[in-house]
Amino acid sequence: HAETIFEVRFSPDQQIAASCSHDGRVRVWNVDRFTLLHNIYVGGTLSSLDWVSQDIIAVGCSDGELRCFT
User: What is the pTM of this model?
Assistant: First the structure.
């Protein structure tokens, strides 16, 4: 991330981590290999993140919206 990271959460199986930042990005990482799996540009400031299920991430955005990604 290029700016402050607000949240880091592990997937239910603990194999994947996701982070969100002021830079408007969600990054998804393979924990065992320390490799970036996805770099999702959402835009705006992202203030919260959590796993809805093993395959879905919910992200809280500065515009008041909640966005989900698979």
Answer: 0.87
